[in-house]
């Protein structure tokens, strides 16, 4: 079985310029965990999951500090985060994970769980030979193929 | 054609690749060193044995020993502990915070590697500033500038000092006597300059200092046992450095002994420790030694030394000032290590011409050390610090640097120039 036989074709995509509130709205409305970001030609640019939304709260330099969780009160930093005026300025381009692991629509189904395991992701965008996005394959899609013999 | 033309071309081409960043500096210097050996063997001015002997293994060993100690130390949370303690001592005044953090960075840079110090101190500084709601920019600039200045103060503060110590056979105490007081003076002077240039940014205003006071800095220490052992070995290392002349130990032996003590006491995962040793830098240094060794054997450095000697015969003071400012000029624009590597044999040759070169070693160290603050690319600390500041809300750009750190560099250089008769 090939990826294209099991993938979800009807997917929601967003543009790099989509605002953070709209992205939040999509997560509220639909039962999905990740949204692919595509350009005008439907080429895959990146992915946004709820983790990326949460990461807005984390200043860029935090990954350089070894350990700071012994600090209880983040003072002004915390106040700013709670009422951050710049929050609505974020767009998909700022948030998305670039260089995402995609999978070819003609790849063997076996490859999906291998890639998910190796890169610790829960879903893979599916692309055709021109790197255009044609669908998404999730853990449930693979499970369905495995246990129910496909759709 | 003079024999030194082709080796000089090899050196300059390599140098171009190192400073332009077109090629990773380790790869550039490594390939350059190989080219120098091939040229030397072909033209019969530089043998493979010469190249091997050109590498200053005493200096490399010193660096490896210190890197191993730092590599174990950096995971203990010690730097965060010190930074938070310093922040508390500022009692909520941005100006005092700037001074405290600058001094802490300077003293850590004297004892340990500058780049490691900066990498560990800047993030916690930014966090402290964010908690207080003040701009981290003046403090980051201060830390970078004082790291470079502090590094000049001791033998182990910065690689150029280690190189000078090893090849001129100068001891830790020699550096304490000659450079430490000047570095202290320059630290005070630069803090004054920085307070003036940043006066608007560090104006006292009501800030809520409680969150910082509430932090228990002891919780920053993740591994107290290891930290105690590291501190013990550092004490042993510095005690041996102080007694070095009497004991007759090599610089590298003492540092490696310290590393041995740490490894034996802490027994860390050796692969992890070795990852903290910067092999690319060591390979870079070894390659530079080979490159410069080729230039020396080809007779080029002799010629430069004779030119400087000619100036020195007429006016020794002028020769000293020229070496100081040329060193600072080079160091502010390009990596100071290749320059220092080339200057060391030149100064030795000047000594062979009959001049007293004792003071020239200190002048070289001061020139390349303080000169590093001239531009953001003048020191690795500057490059790394600027890259880190880009992750904050107030990144440091070239213009800010010119108005602050460059001013400090010029004023500290004038300070040294005024003192030059006593150096």
Element layout with pairings:
The complex is a heterodimer of chains A (151) and B (423).
Chain A (H helix, E strand, L loop, with lengths): L2 H4 L13 H10 L4 E5 L5 E6 H6 L19 H8 L9 H4 L1 E2 L4 E2 L6 H9 L3 E5 L5 E6 H10 L3
Parallel strand pairs in A: 4-5
Antiparallel strand pairs in A: 1-2, 2-3, 5-6
Chain B lengths: L4 H16 L4 H19 L4 H7 L2 H17 L4 H12 L4 H18 L2 H19 L4 H16 L6 H10 L3 H7 L1 H18 L12 H5 L9 H19 L1 H4 L3 H16 L3 H7 L2 H19 L2 H15 L1 H18 L2 H17 L5 H14 L8 H10 L8 H6 L1 H15 L4
Helix pairs in contact in B: 1-2, 1-17, 2-17, 3-17, 4-9, 4-13, 4-15, 4-16, 5-6, 5-7, 6-7, 6-8, 7-8, 7-22, 8-11, 8-21, 8-22, 9-20, 9-21, 11-24, 13-15, 17-20, 18-19, 18-20, 19-20, 19-21, 20-21, 21-24
Protein described:
The complex is a heterodimer of chains A (151) and B (423). Chain A has a single domain (3-148), classed as Roll (CBS-domain). In chain A, 34% of the residues lie in helices and 17% in strands. Chain A has seven helices and six strands, in the order ααββαααββαββα. Chain A has helices spanning 3-6, 20-29, 50-55, 75-82, 92-95, 111-119, 139-148; strands at 34-38, 44-49, 97-98, 103-104, 123-127, 133-138. Chain B has 423 residues and is mainly α. Chain B has one domain. Chain B is globular.
Query: Which homologous superfamily in CATH is the superfamily of chain A?
Result: CBS-domain
When the domains of chain B are counted, the total is 1
CATH class of chain A reads Alpha Beta
> Uncertain segments of chain B of ≥5 residues (pLDDT<50)?
none
Largest sheet of chain B: none
Q: How does the overall form of chain A come out from the CA principal axes?
A: elongated
N- to C-terminal distance of chain A: 12 Å
Q: From the helix content, strand content and strand pairing of chain B, which structural class follows?
A: mainly alpha
From the structure provided, what is the oligomeric state, counting identical versus distinct chains?
A: heterodimer
- Total of DSSP H or I helical runs spanning 4+ residues of chain B: 24
In whole angstroms, the N-to-C terminal distance of chain B is 40 Å
Biggest interface, residues from each chain: A-B, 18 and 28 residues
Number of DSSP strands of chain B? 0
Widest sheet: strand ordering of chain A: 1-2-3
Per DSSP, what share of the residues of chain A sits in E-state strands of 2 or more residues?
15-25%
* Unreliable parts of chain A: none
List how many beta strands of chain A DSSP finds. Answer: 6
């Amino acid at each position: 079985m090939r990826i294209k036989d099991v993938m979800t074709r009807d997917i929601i995509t967003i543009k790099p310029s989509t605002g953070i509130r709209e992205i939040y709205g999509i997560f509220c409305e639909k039962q999905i965990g990740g949204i692919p970001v595509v350009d005008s030609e439907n080429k895959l640019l990146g992915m946004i999951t709820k983790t990326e939304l949460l990461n807005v709260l984390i200043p860029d330099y935090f990954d350089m500090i070894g350990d700071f969780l012994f600090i209880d009160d983040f003072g002004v930093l915390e106040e700013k985060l709670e009422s951050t005026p710049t929050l609505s300025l974020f767009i998909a381009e700022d948030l998305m994970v670039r260089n995402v692991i995609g999978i070819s629509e003609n790849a063997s189904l076996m490859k999906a769980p291998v890639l998910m395991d190796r890169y610790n992701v829960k879903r893979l965008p599916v692309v055709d030979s021109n790197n255009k996005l044609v669908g998404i394959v999730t853990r449930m899609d693979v499970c369905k193929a495995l246990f129910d013999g496909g759709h | 054609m003079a024999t030194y033309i082709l080796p000089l071309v090899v050196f300059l081409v390599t140098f171009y690749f190192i400073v332009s960043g077109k090629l990773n500096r380790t790869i550039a210097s490594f390939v350059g060193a190989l080219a120098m050996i091939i040229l030397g063997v072909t033209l019969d001015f530089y043998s493979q044995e010469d190249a091997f002997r050109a590498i200053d293994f005493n200096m490399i060993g010193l660096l490896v020993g210190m890197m191993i100690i730092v590599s174990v130390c950096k995971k203990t949370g010690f730097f965060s502990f010190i930074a938070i303690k310093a922040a508390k001592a500022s009692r909520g005044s941005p100006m005092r915070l700037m001074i405290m953090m600058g001094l802490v960075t300077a003293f850590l840079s004297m004892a340990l590697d500058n780049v490691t110090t900066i990498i560990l101190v800047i993030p916690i500084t930014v966090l402290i500033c964010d908690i207080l709601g003040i701009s981290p920019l003046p403090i980051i600039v201060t830390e970078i500038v004082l790291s470079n200045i502090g590094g000049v103060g001791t033998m182990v503060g910065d690689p150029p000092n280690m190189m000078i110590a090893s090849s001129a056979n100068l001891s830790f105490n020699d550096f304490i006597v000659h450079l430490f007081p000047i570095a202290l003076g320059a630290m005070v002077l630069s803090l004054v300059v920085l307070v003036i240039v940043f006066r608007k940014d560090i104006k006292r205003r009501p800030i809520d200092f409680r969150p910082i006071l509430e932090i228990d800095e002891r919780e920053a220490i993740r591994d107290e046992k290891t930290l105690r052992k590291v501190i013990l070995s550092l004490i042993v290392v510095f005690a041996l450095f102080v007694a070095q002349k009497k004991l007759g130990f090599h610089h590298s032996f003492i540092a490696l002994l310290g590393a041995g003590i740490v490894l034996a006491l802490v027994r860390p995962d050796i692969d992890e420790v070795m990852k903290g040793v910067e092999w690319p830098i060591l390979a870079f240094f070894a390659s530079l030694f080979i490159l410069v060794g080729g230039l020396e054997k080809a007779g080029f450095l002799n010629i430069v030394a004779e030119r400087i000697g000619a100036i020195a015969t007429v006016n020794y003071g002028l020769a000293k000032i020229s070496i100081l400012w040329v060193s600072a000029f080079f160091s502010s624009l390009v990596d100071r290590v290749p320059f220092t590597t080339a200057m060391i044999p030149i100064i030795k040759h000047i000594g062979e011409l009959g001049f007293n070169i004792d003071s020239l070693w200190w002048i070289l160290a001061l020139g390349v050390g303080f000169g590093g603050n001239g531009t953001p690319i003048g020191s690795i600390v500057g490059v790394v610090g600027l890259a880190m500041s880009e992750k904050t809300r107030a990144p440091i750009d070239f213009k800010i640097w010119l108005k602050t750190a460059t001013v400090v560099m010029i004023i500290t250089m004038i300070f040294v120039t005024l003192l030059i008769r006593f150096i």
